[in-house]
Specification:
single chain; 212 residues; 2 domains; 10 helices; 0% strand
Amino acid sequence: MNPAKRQAIFERLRAANPEPRGELEYRTPFELLIAVILSAQATDRSVNLATRELYKKANTPKALLALGVKGVEAYVKSIGLYRTKAKNIIATCAQLLEHHGGEVPRDREALQALPGVGRKTANVVLNIAFGEPTIAVDTHIFRISNRTGIAPGKDPLAVEKKLLKFVPQEFRLHAHHWLILHGRYVCLARKPRCPECLISGLCEFRGKTGNA
């Protein structure tokens, strides 16, 4: 895909949704961090249902740590892998209190040192909580980047590096949200909704559906 096409794709995505937002509910960087840890292999809707009640009870590292693993499990048991996630959340709270004064660090290495926080989670927190122009590559973004030709790559890290290289600077802050929302509602995994797609004429996917 050439630079002009990429420019046009992101201009259309921006025109349709100038200030995109993710669908996880949060009020602080810490609430976002916990929500993203919970969101692995889970829907944002299921995470929001759990955190609405959890955050009423505890929404700081100190308060969550006081709940303990079993206490957190009680609130998140509807989410997949909840036992492992509860352990990671408690361990993360302990590290935040011990090493970061209870604050979420604005640093990739420090974030990835937290239990349950990988590169994707760190990128989400840096982008959404701190306004860093990072692009977290989840299954939706990996699929779209390869399918459309925007930034093809064999694994999420390869796609991330290409996105950071190829996405024009003016679009990098919101690229994560534009692509993930597009993948969630339009460029679906099994049957993409090509006739409704606003970038269909620019996309290089050969298996377009319908009359696109």
